[in-house]
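User: I'm new to structure prediction. If I give you an amino acid sequence, what do you actually give back? Let's try with this one:
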Amino acid sequence: MGCGIGCDGRLVTVAVGDVNDHAPEFARSLYVGELIENNYVGARVLAVTAADADVADNGRVRYELRGADAAKFAVDPDSGEITATESLDREEAARCARQSAS
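Assistant: Good question. You get back a string of structure tokens that encode the predicted 3D arrangement of the chain. For your 102 residues, that looks like this:
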């Protein structure tokens, strides 16, 4: 590789890697879970599943919960399994729903 007098050429290899250019997609558009009233702590609600078309670590899906009632539930960040973190009362949930709707 010539570059003239006083110039030193170097060969550089550039590796182009995947970027996180695909958003994860859930297997279903809606998930509905059910619990019995006064459930036990740790009761399984449901499991969600998503896939990402990216490769390697960029394609790894991790789950988390957000929102006003997120603290009442836990999600396994790797499997998507959602469990209750407290015993839920139907009457209390109905009162909360009415309060948030007004």
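You can read the tokens as a compact description of the fold. Here is one thing that stands out. The chain has a mean pLDDT of 80.
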